[in-house]
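Interim report, section 4.2 (structural modelling).
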Amino acid sequence: MFNKTVARLTYKALLGRRRALLLCALPLLLIVVAVAVRLLGDVDDDVTKQLLGGFAMATIVPLIGVVAGTGAIGPEIDDGSVVYLLAKPARRSSIVVTKLLVAIGVTVVFSAVPTFVAGYVLNGDSQQIASAYAVAAAAASVAYSALFLLLGTVSRHAVVIGLVYALIWEALFGNLVPGARELSVQQWALTLAQKVGGSGAGITSEVGTATGVTLLVVATVGGAWYASRRLRAFTLAGEE
Amino acid sequence: MTTLHIDHTSRWFGNVVAVNDITMDIGPGVTGLLGPNGAGKSTLINMMAGFLPPSTGSVTLDSAPIWRNQEAYREIGLVPEREGMYDFLTGWDFVLANAELHKLSDPAAAARRALATVEMEQAQDRKISTYSKGMRQRVKMASALVHDPSALLLDEPFNGMDPRQRMQLMRLLREMGDAGRTVLFSSHILEEVEQLASHIEVVVAGRHAASGDFRKIRRLMTDRPHRYLVRSSDDRRLAAALIADASTAGIELDWNEKALQIQAIDFGRFTEVLPRLAREHGIRLYTVSPSDESLESVFSYLVAA
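Predicted structure of the assembly:
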């Protein structure tokens, strides 16, 4: 299922150009904020939770997910170069799975890892808060990558739609409107943080663990499946 | 030996019919797909390349359908018209990646051979983003040739190439046709097609307008009635003299244009008769211009024929 050539092309596309700058800037910002907070005052578990939950999980992870997920396929579809991948006797599902794995890898490296580093800087993983959020960020990375990869195969405006979803739904409604929280990758992933976090950490999620994990799996598998379908029926419109 | 069959194929986009009930077979040798812009050439090539399903009818490679049939790409090489091609790679990386995606047993050797065929070894280690239009076109060719396909589809391959690059690509395509490959390229320029293709298929406004060798197509094109707009010192007398000659079929005194609209049915004779009659009658010619030399009107005449 894994195609080394597709993987090479995808990560070169993702880590080249301006995208790499964006991918580095966001986690760097998170760590700078964590260091600043640490230096400025007393950091307790609550402050750590607020920064990791309210900033890392709610903003950084979905944003990196948008950049990596849509970037893994969207630009190729936009400029037509995806034709070179598709005019080959290769399974469409293996192209999608490979691209998804690369997008997940990039999202984990640029969001889950910095989340742990920021948490560790803040309170040294007390109550396993840093680990808990890092695990949740990694799980969210998987689902976001699949959803935004799918979005890249469906719409030319994948980045804009992805940003609207990430910033308005996940960061704003996800924190304010109770109903929206249940349909949020962030909340599903937080069920894992709840499990990993210490008893005193008090990390909460809107959904139960079983529901959260099921929805994460459904979103990931469903996204990958539908993206393969889209590629199987990829058309060039021609000169008209 | 591979033959592409297009059988009673139509393709529409919403209300627009891009390809209208076309039937043609593309066999070994070089075939030119000729037609004005927007005639449906790209739509046809996209269907043959498996990137567009026909609305009705069938498009097959020998007997296998091409749409949603990835195995067809073992036989087909495609040179798309669009420019997008992983600009951040070097030419070598790009062609090698194409060879690997074909799962060839020795991708590096295949890439080396393909780049040599298009004479791009010198520039193969430069990034594609630094290439000229002609170099990009050649690297695209190399990527399409890397798996030694029996059918090669090229969409407007000569667009933006300078004359030397054009000659080089023509020579290459001619060699491939001579070697028994099925080579199909599209173009809206008659001279290009005439120089290269042993067989021509003409498409106009989605319809199959003509089919044959270039002599037949050329004759169809020059034998058609030509329209001319002529201004002179005495339009009426000139009109009277011209209509008496067998080379014209109709003349109109166009009051808006203050000119004659002449329909010539014998092109060669008309071009010789017009200045002679003007001289004999002491009439000065101010304007002589063909009014329907656009490719579009040449082609639409073919459709009507």
